[in-house]
């Protein structure tokens, strides 16, 4: 209105969409270019692995997996820890990005593989892990670290029979914070901090003593949180934190 124009929301939205298409390209055509991208990576980055999964009947895109040669070979020089997580994609067709990260010698993130899928489901995690099994060295025993995703809990033992699967401490603390909403913020921060203290206790005895105290302090507020956590998935990681930090 400052310029004497009365433009509808719909017209502004169309203008923004056309501008995005000019800058970033049309989303539909970009999906078509995945086949060109697959060919370029496999031709010029020898040792890489890319897989495009699509519906054979409709010829529509389903999933995309990629791991580059430098990432595959670089993981052999990293500790045998793989961190699994996902994030949301914000493009026109949404979807989610699944990723596997390691830690380099300076404790920095080292990307290993990623996949584009429609949703975070057990089926998609299973596909991602099966694809991942084609690129990692089977001679080392891998420890996977993730949030408490139920799909991963079901799939992991079926795909990697000898691998360990442990929970990420940061996710545990976030989940505990969500479980005890509605209480004094200072007390909630204390309980979350106490969970972190449990993780860094140097002995199993001290860990259980601290955990028992935490459960007593939280009373019934976090009962379901602790009940749903299988100790074999997070006690081992607690001990590993002392080693890898």
Strand content: 15-25%
Can you count the helices?
11
Largest sheet: 7 strands, mixed
Terminus-to-terminus distance: 57 Å
The helix content, as a percent range, equals: 40-55%
Mean pLDDT: 83
- Report low-confidence residues grouped into runs of 5 or more: 236-245
Question: What's the total number of strands?
Answer: 7
Number of domains: 2
Order of helices and strands: HHHEEHEEEHEHEHHHHH
Looking across the biggest beta sheet, what order are the strands in?
1-2-5-4-3-6-7
Radius of gyration from CA coordinates: 23 Å
Principal-axis shape equals globular
Q: From the helix content, strand content and strand pairing, which structural class follows?
A: alpha/beta
Can you describe this structure?
It is a single chain. This protein is of the alpha/beta class. The chain folds into 2 domains: 27-167, no CATH class; 169-244. It is built from 11 helices and 7 strands. It has helices spanning 9-24, 27-32, 34-44, 69-75, 122-132, 150-159, 169-179, 185-199, 204-218, 223-228, 231-244; strands spanning 49-54, 61-67, 81-88, 96-103, 109-117, 143-146, 164-167. Strands 1-2-5-4-3-6-7 form a 7-stranded mixed β-sheet, with helices on both faces. A hairpin with a 6-residue loop joins strand 1 (49-54) and strand 2. Helix 5 runs parallel beside helix 6 and helix 7 runs antiparallel to helix 8. The chain is globular, with a radius of gyration of 23 Å. Residues 236-245 have low confidence and may be disordered.
Outline of this structure?
The chain has 245 residues and is an alpha/beta fold. It is built from 11 helices and 7 strands.
């Amino acid at each position: 209105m400052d310029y004497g124009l009365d433009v509808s929301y719909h017209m502004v939205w169309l203008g923004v969409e056309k501008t995005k298409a000019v800058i970033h390209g049309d989303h539909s055509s970009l999906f078509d270019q995945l086949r060109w991208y697959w060919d370029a990576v496999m031709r010029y980055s020898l040792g890489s692995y890319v897989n495009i999964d699509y519906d054979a009947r409709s010829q529509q895109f389903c999933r995309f997996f990629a791991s580059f040669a430098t990432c595959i070979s670089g993981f052999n020089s990293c500790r045998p820890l793989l961190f699994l997580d996902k994030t949301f994609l914000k493009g026109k067709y949404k979807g989610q990005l699944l990723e596997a990260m390691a830690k380099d010698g300076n404790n920095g993130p080292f990307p290993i593989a990623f996949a584009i899928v429609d949703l975070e489901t057990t089926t998609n995690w299973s596909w991602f892990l099966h694809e991942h099994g084609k690129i990692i060295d089977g001679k080392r025993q891998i420890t996977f670290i993730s949030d408490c995703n139920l799909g991963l809990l079901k799939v992991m033992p079926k795909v990697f029979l000898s691998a360990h699967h442990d929970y990420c401490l940061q996710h545990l603390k976030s989940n505990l914070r969500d479980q005890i909403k509605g209480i004094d913020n200072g007390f909630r921060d204390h309980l979350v901090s106490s969970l972190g203290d449990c993780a860094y206790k140097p002995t199993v005895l001290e860990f259980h003593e601290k955990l028992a105290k935490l459960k007593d302090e939280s009373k019934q507020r976090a009962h379901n949180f602790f009940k749903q956590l299988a100790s074999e998935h997070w006690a081992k990681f607690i001990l590993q934190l002392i080693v890898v930090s």
